[in-house]
Please model this.
Amino acid sequence: MSGLKVIEIAEGVAGPFCGRLLASFGATVLKIERPPKGDWTRYSQPQINNLGTPESGALYLYNNMGKQSVVFDWKRPSGLTRLHNLLEKADVLIDDLKFEDRANFGLDAESLTRLNGSLIDISLTPYGLSGPYEDWSSTPLVSLAMGGYAYLSGDPNREPLMLPGHQPQYLNGLKGYSGVMLALHDRRRSGCGQVVEVSEMETLAALHQFTTVLLTYDGVIRRRAGVRLSTAAQIGGYPITTLPCKDGFVTFSASAAQQWENLCCMMEREDLLADPRFSNFRALKPYADEIDDVLRGWIADKTRKEIVDIAAGVWSVPTSPVFELDEVLQDGQYAVRGLFHEQEHASGETLIFPTVPFRLSKTPPIFKRAPLLNEHESN
Model:
């Protein structure tokens, strides 16, 4: 990706995360920030040592690694002219503008084509550039609710729950990165750029394969099921659940008859397999409470490690401890895979960031710190 010139005017998470991925594989990403403070994530919590400076926002530092920063107000006439001049020589534009704003600033598809016919514009927005919601604002909670995931999260007799953090925006940024790759591939054939729209609402809704199949083919609306898997009516395998043990919580997720048989043998409860109620793996869900009681008895005096070492390591039953976040950072699997990376901050401190969730055997990613505000104005 060396030689690829990217202009980023998006703020927040989705667009900057897309730009971060491009920068990690060699693209030159010029982040244009508006005065006086730049991207709002520079000041968002949490902050490094609570400095309250443009260089201390952890969200900014993560999503803008490896970029260049210049500050000018591209929404004013002189700044807009400067932006257009940059776009004439660019390969990719990353934006998060609403449809009306794109037209007002000469950044709609027609204007961009006249400006630079080979330019690829990645539009990352909550709802896309058309439809009745196009002009609405969003947050992670709103996106999860509109995408159907809040409805599926939580206990069945309580209000829906949200996921913490910015997962919808990160997913959108990742889809935007995929869109860039596809558009670049097409440009090699056609020589032409195009607009790639990525909608948070659609990104989430498109992940509902199992849920939509249930509704389309069986007429069943999947509902919240707490720590258990929600399936059609009262059918399905088991256990798929989360239970307390000696030092926390552990999950079991048997998805095949052999795994259920292994689980019973592991607990020395072969008698369950001889019981007609438990002999058919696909009909175990009605007996979930009874199966949970058996599991609770077996795991009550064991640690998460003891349980997982036996269940996953010996008996091939899909099992996992419920990690706290500090345990995620310390886990040996992540260490071997090199997911977490130490990066020096401009202050001289060393911070730990996730890298990228994929590996290329011949194209390793490159990681550099996020830029200071307006650091590259003179370049």
